[in-house]
Please model this.
Amino acid sequence: MSYSVKEIYFTLQGEGFHTGKHAVFCRFSGCNLWSGLEKNREKAICNFCDTDFVGTDGINGNKYQNAESLAKKIDEIWDKNSNDKLVVFTGGEPLLQLNGELIDLLHERKFKVAIETNGTILPPKNIDWICVSPKKGAEFNLDYGNEIKLVYPQEGLDPEEFQDFDFDHFFIQPMDGKDFQKNILQSVSYCIENPLWRLSLQTHKIMGID
Ligand code: SF4
Model:
């Protein structure tokens, strides 16, 4: 199969459990909860997105014709000074495209494979790290994984709904936007009251990196 990729780049993971870790980020084009076009935002299921996942015009973005060509590109972008190889598939919604064949090829190249997903689609079995970020109003099908990262607050979405699901780590992450400062305070307060949940900050935005 072919893969539509918005961008691929080497960076430090900015949020969640692997914050600060070297990673190649591969951003697939497209999402099942929003078209990515501003004119459709208001009516989208998910309408607070801060990511451009439309098209293939970012750095190393392309229509990769097969899994081998995409795995090769990801390997080329890896920082050769480190052997602890990690690729994070994100989007958009990466599980619209990520499949077992691509994961196998990346394993052959010694990568650990992680995803950041909205939880609507079940992942291939051979994936190494699952981070789910549920969205209010969207189907929630992926109730297991390594970490759950809840953008907070989302009206009508109570973290308690998720606390009995099968995750190793539970994160609350303040929603960016016009109420950001207020959302940080609310998130801190929630984590203090509910110690199961740890605070995740988008440190890449603080650092001014992608
Ligand atoms: S699910 Fe994720 S990628 Fe899709 S619109 Fe929402 S925040 Fe953006």
